[in-house]
Hints:
The relative contact order is 0.08. The protein has ten helices and twelve strands. A six-stranded mixed β-sheet has the order 7-9-8-10-11-12, sandwiched between helices. 39% of the residues lie in helices and 23% in strands. It is of the alpha/beta class and 272 residues long. The chain is elongated.
Amino acid sequence: KQWYQRRVAITAGGVDIEEVAEKTPERVYKVPVDIFTGVTDAMATELAEKLEFSSEVVPAAAAEIKKLYELFTGVDATQVEVNPFGLTDRSEVVCFDAKINFDDNAQFRQRDIFSMEDTSETDPRELEAAKYDLNYIGMDGNIGCLVNGAGLAMATMDIVQLHGGSPANFLDVGGKVQEEQVEKAFNILTQDPAVKTIFVNIFGGIVDCRVIASGIVSACRKTGLSLPLVVRLQGANMEEARKILDNSGLHIQAHDQFNEAAEAAVKSLEGK
């Protein structure tokens, strides 16, 4: 099996690449790169020629293209966008401006880079969630959603909206969540004054539903939760998880069906 990354280049610098791709697609060059081989001399030279560098500076441009790929892999980037990539009046090949995005999953080995991140404009709830390996995105609604997995999160938000509700957030606890993380997730949700009800929707493929249930019960007791709480747990050890909820003595609306649970979450807002 071969794995490829794709390099995209256009001959028009300083412009919107989407617009160029739509109006003059012949000016967009795409080069698949085998991740084990990398950018070869031949590939870099061909791309430099297509970018219309003169023959005198093609070797220098090709060298820069190879260095850009080395940068891309070396810093665990998800994107390195150079615009423009051109010549100085002394015929020096230069990356005049660039934008680089980094893979959050590589933070453990790119500590120096991530230490430079400016978090002054980041939602404090996102920062708090990140401390516990939780993914949080705030929204404008009033139903706090706690889920596992981005796909389920998107589906949860869609079905909540289908029933006339409005999600207050996207809070993904991931696949390796532990009880403490569930408690922290509840703390983040309950600290948002806009949240009027909480909807927990978990599919336990990797996640143990018992861990989620125990975390929910512990969080409710520690925070003295007074908000309506709707819970759907499906998958690994869901029967035991249901017993934990039922025996907690807490007012928790537990449902088995996705649609039914979402509808209940929306209805719990009536009169609020």
